[in-house]
């Protein structure tokens, strides 16, 4: 191989390496953003589960006497 050919090949490899490093940085940033988003969604999911559990407990503790009867409810046309 001539020195020019070797230099061209080295330049091509350096160019490819630079592209791959840039692409790797881009993927790393995207992965970090997704990780933050997943953590946020997990916190939201945990909060909603807790609220749902509390609502279920509230409904379970309500007695039938607390529920309005049909005679207690006034129709909307009155």
Automatic annotation (TrEMBL):
Residues 54-78 are annotated as: Disordered. InterPro entries: SlyX. Signal peptide: none annotated. Transmembrane segments: none annotated. Pfam families: SlyX (PF04102). Residues 54-64 have a biased composition (Basic and acidic residues). This is SlyX. It comes from Chromohalobacter japonicus. The lineage of its organism: Bacteria, Pseudomonadati, Pseudomonadota, Gammaproteobacteria, Oceanospirillales.
